[in-house]
């Protein structure tokens, strides 16, 4: 199975063509790096220069797609160029290959190339000087440093800057992603809060309307129908007022003069009176001191939703509402008769129980609801310290 080589980058093709044409031009005009009579020149004339030149131009095609292979092939080519009169184009292309091998190659290879070229520079400086004992011998190390170590060091610096820029870009993307995630979570939490408020504020009135309208339609009694219509009108007006108050809060969010729609435990008596007017027999027992506002709101809404469920589903009988504050916890308990109901029922979706459980969980409390013998009991514990932090 044939291995398909990666296609060279367009910029690398331009470099290879430019280096090859430049080397041919220099060879054509007879411009070389060393004279023909130089002691290390083994092959005189312009034609031996072309072999390492062509090989080096081919390596330039691999400088980005296969940088290690380009360096492994280019190193023998530059050594071969040394025993000819030499071409400046071949030397320049080799420096570019060393630079590309550090910049585009694997990190481990880039480190090794740094060390190898550094050691070659030191050896090229010390060994000739130790052998010949002339200052001019130090120039060999300078040439090795310019041709090998200089490009490697430059490639390492550029690579570090590139990696730092890439890391900064990734951090910026992660920060933007986290910000978007936080925004989405905030929007979701706000929508859930508004949904709970809307359900708890309106469900009680709509349930009363549904039950009394069903009774008015099923009973052929003008007096009963008139009483049912009165209750329906009262709950319609109150429900509409609650809706307008919630809409006002949403529209005037952040306005210092926005209407205050947060109910308090002082309003439980009015809430119970409204439930009594809808036909429930309720006993209210409260024993609490100063309660943080989040806990106060949660307790009020839990009682309100429990009374709504009692209106929709409870059997005839007494409903008890009890609030007690002990040991840093506000306990809320609502019990209503449980069993078969002969009268009309309002449909339920289960969202009320979910909302009550969410309210308790947000404050770090607990919530339980279910049958307890002949009673359906709702029990919630709301820590007061969690209420302060919330």
Topology overview:
Elements: H1 10-28, H2 47-60, H3 67-82, H4 88-104, H5 107-132, H6 138-218, H7 222-251, H8 268-277, E1 281-287, H9 293-313, E2 318-326, E3 329-337, H10 351-362, E4 366-372, E5 375-383, H11 384-389
Helix pairs in contact: 1-2, 1-4, 2-3, 2-4, 3-4, 4-5, 4-6, 5-6, 6-7, 6-9, 8-9, 9-10
If you had to describe this structure to a student in words, what would you say it looks like?
By secondary structure, this protein is of the alpha+beta class. It folds into two domains: about 10-175, no CATH class; about 260-390, Heat Shock Protein 90 (2-Layer Sandwich), CATH 3.30.565.10. The chain has helices at about 10-30, 45-60, 65-80, 90-105, 105-130, 140-220, 220-250, 270-275, 295-315, 350-360, 385-390, and strands at about 280-285, 320-325, 330-335, 365-370, 375-385. A five-stranded mixed beta sheet has the order 1-2-3-5-4. Helix 2 packs parallel to helix 4 (about 90-105) and helix 9 runs antiparallel to helix 10. It is rod-shaped and about 130 Å long.
Distance between the termini: 67 Å
Tell me which oligomeric state these chains represent: single chain
Beta fraction? 5-15%
Strand count, sense and barrel status of the largest sheet are: 5 strands, mixed
Main structural class: alpha+beta
Total domains? 2
Could you spell the SSE succession in H and E letters?
Answer: HHHHHHHHEHEEHEEH
Ranges where pLDDT stays below 50 over 5 or more residues in a row are: 256-260, 386-390
The global form is rod-shaped
Report strand order across the widest sheet.
Answer: 1-2-3-5-4
Average pLDDT, rounded to a whole number, is: 83
Provide a count of the helices: 11
Q: Cα-atom Rg, whole angstroms?
A: 43 Å
For the secondary structure, the number of strands is 5
Give the helix level as a range of percent.
55-70%
């Amino acid at each position: 199975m044939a291995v398909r080589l990666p296609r060279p980058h367009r910029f690398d093709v331009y470099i290879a063509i430019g280096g090859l044409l430049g080397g041919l031009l220099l060879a054509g005009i007879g411009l070389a790096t060393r004279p023909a009579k130089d002691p290390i020149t083994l092959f005189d004339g312009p034609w031996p220069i072309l072999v390492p030149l062509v090989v080096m131009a081919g390596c330039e095609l691999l400088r980005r797609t296969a940088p290690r292979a380009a360096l492994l092939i280019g190193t023998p080519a530059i050594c071969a160029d040394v025993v000819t009169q030499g071409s400046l184009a071949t030397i320049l292309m080799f420096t570019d290959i060393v630079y590309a091998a550090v910049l585009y190659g694997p990190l481990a290879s880039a480190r090794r190339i740094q060390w190898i070229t550094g050691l070659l520079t030191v050896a090229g400086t010390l060994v000739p000087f130790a052998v010949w004992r002339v200052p001019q011998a130090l120039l060999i190390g300078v040439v090795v440093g310019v041709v090998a170590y200089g490009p490697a060091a430059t490639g390492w610096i550029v690579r570090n800057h590139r990696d730092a820029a890439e890391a900064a870009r990734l951090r910026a993307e992660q920060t933007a992603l986290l910000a978007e995630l936080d925004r989405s979570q905030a929007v979701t939490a706000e929508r859930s809060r508004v949904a709970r408020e809307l359900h708890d504020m309106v469900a009680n009135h709509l349930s009363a309307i549904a039950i009394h309208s069903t009774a008015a339609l099923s009973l052929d009694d003008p007096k009963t129908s008139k009483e049912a219509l009165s209750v329906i009108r009262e709950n319609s007006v109150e429900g509409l007022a609650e809706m307008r108050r919630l809409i006002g809060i949403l529209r005037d969010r952040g306005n210092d003069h926005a209407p205050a729609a947060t109910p308090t435990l002082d309003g439980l008596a009015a809430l119970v009176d409204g439930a009594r007017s809808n036909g429930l027999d309720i006993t209210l027992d409260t024993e609490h001191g100063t309660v943080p506002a989040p806990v106060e709101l949660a307790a009020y809404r839990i009682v309100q939703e429990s009374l709504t469920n009692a209106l929709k589903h409870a059997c005839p009988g007494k409903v008890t509402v009890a609030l007690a504050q002990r040991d840093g916890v506000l306990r809320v308990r609502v019990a209503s008769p449980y069993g078969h109901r002969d009268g009309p029922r309002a449909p339920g979706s289960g969202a009320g129980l979910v909302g009550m459980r969410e309210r308790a969980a947000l404050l770090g409390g607990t919530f339980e609801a279910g049958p307890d013998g002949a009673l359906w009991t709702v029990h919630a514990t709301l820590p007061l310290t969690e209420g302060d932090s919330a």
